[in-house]
Amino acid sequence: MTITSYNPADPTDLVVAVEEPGAEAVRAAVGRARAAQGDWLAAGAGARSAALGRIAEAVEAHAEELAALIVREVGKPLAEARGEVARTAAIWRYYAQAPYAPSGAVHETAAGPGLLLTRRRPYGVAGLIAPWNFPLAIPSWKAAPALAVGNTVVLKPAPEATACALRLAELAGLPADVFTVLPGGAEEGSALVDTADVVSFTGSTGVGRAVVRAATERGVPVQAELGGLNAALVLPDADIALAAAHIAAAIAGYAGQKCTATSRVIAVGAAYEPLREALVKALEAVDDAVCGPVVNAAARDRLTGAVSSAAEAGASVLTGGGVPERAGWFIEPTLLADVPAEHPLAREEFFGPVAVLHEAADLDAAIALANDTPHSLATSVHTRSLDVALAAADRLDAGMIRVNAPSSGVDFHLPFGGAKGASHGEREQGQAALEFYTVSRTVSVLPGGGA
Ligand code: NAD
Fold first, then answer.
1. 147 and 284 belong to one structural domain
2. Which of 9, 252, 333, 389 has its CA 20 to 30 A from that of 1?
3. How many Cβ atoms are within 10 Å of 202's Cβ, its own excluded?
4. Ligand 1, atom 13: nearest CA belongs to which residue?
């Protein structure tokens, strides 16, 4: 079998083809990574910090090449691809400081002389499984903290993002077996979960749940960041034009292929009519520089199929729904209303530039509707009222609540993750990631006598 990735804007353009390595190759790579881990840890904080800093510099030095590769391999619009490259460099630079951070605390003994310490230590080999939609940033926000604290890493990228991951490992230039990228699909992913010492997964909910079960069965720590069914709540006091601009960007930016994209818009009371009009206008103004194609033909067909089936079930298509006459896997930014509550489009993540507009009588009804999903990743709230913003922050089930901002958007130095079924285990990013990739040891040192 061969792993291939194609340019979503030009499906005749084969970006990369590599032999699928198979499960045995994964086990061998993890074995080599385990053998390399002792030296990587023993190299010390200074060496690890310098190595991570050099990766940030290498990413910056190749920024345009990397942005072009992201555009070509996963169809991300250029401005967003450049943003992702800049964020990738920032992530490596941020974690380059981490090796110097305190790794524990000193405590008093309860009685008598001695020294009690806690000390965080790496697990060994971090097995990282990534999706394709942030082909440099997600592998980096997993690998950088894992490496900073002294683990070695085996990364299995999504097949659709193979070339980006291989280039990242090449540019990283770390010692042999410290940062291995092993292309592959489900077989390699599952072999990695079966052999790594700590597992971090980002991807769809179904696959993530299986990964969590398998890692838990082995007793190894696991975190999983999964899909979202993200809502935008718009209150009547909001600046409707500004809210519509933010929400259109969150629906259609990168063709809605962000786990934090908005797929449900909930207008409260008098906000409904003006928002519907403004949002349709904003979505119709979206161009390729913002939206771009979806990742492959199957994704496009799944989206158009869901839109037609919702329309047959009584939904109105307020804008979009069509497939432009052109090469590439494009679909028009789409907004529907009156989608039956149990239709899959209202309940599942479809991962495309398609959203459903709902009406809620008041804030309570809007919060109840927003919370009526297990896929609670990010919710945006559009209001000028501090009371509403605070109520939302208290009562929404989301892992990320963004007031007067698109639901999509991530600050790399803050904890990132969802609520309820959208997330499992420790948060990613920021300081939280350093905790995830280490385990705390308690050390008691008592006098040896004879002094
Ligand atoms: P996916 O679940 O199809 O694949 C994710 C990764 O898992 C890939 O590397 C894939 O090869 C691997 N994999 C597949 N089967 C496996 C198995 N049985 N065992 C181990 N690994 C396996 O997801 P995708 O299509 O690559 O990415 C899109 C999804 O990712 C969306 O659902 C999106 O919401 C989600 N996502 C979530 C976040 C987040 O942080 N919450 C961020 C980005 C993307």
1. no
2. 9
3. 25
4. 186
Query: Are residues 212 and 319 both part of a single domain?
Result: no
CATH of the domain at 79: 3.40.605.10
**Contact in structure between 233 and 403 (CB atoms under 8 Å):** no
DSSP state, residue 101:
S
Across residues 416-427, what is the average pLDDT? 94
pLDDT in tens, 225-258: 999 999 999 999 999 999 999 999 999 999 999 9
My answer on whether 240 and 188 are in the same domain is: no
Q: Looking at ligand 1, which residue's alpha carbon is closest to its atom 31?
A: 204
CB environment 115-141: b (16+ within 10 A), e (fewer): eeeeebebbbbbbbbbbbbbbbbbbbb
Identify whether the C-beta of residue 20 lies closer than 8 Å to the C-beta of residue 183. yes
Bridge partners, residue 400, by sequence: 378
Show the domain range for 108.
2-226+422-445
Q: What is the pLDDT of residues 342-384, one digit of tens each?
A: 999 999 999 999 999 999 999 999 999 999 999 999 999 999 9
Give all strands (DSSP E) within 137-247, no chain letters.
152-156, 179-181, 198-202, 222-225, 230-234
259 with 315, same domain? yes
From first CA to last CA, the distance across the chain in angstroms is 67
Per-residue pLDDT, 450: 78
Would you say the CB of residue 86 lies under 6 angstroms from ligand 1? no
Distance between Cα 386 and ligand 1 center (Å): 36
Q: Which two tokens stand for residue 9?
A: 């804007």
Tokens of 100: 């110097």
3-state SS, residue 316? strand
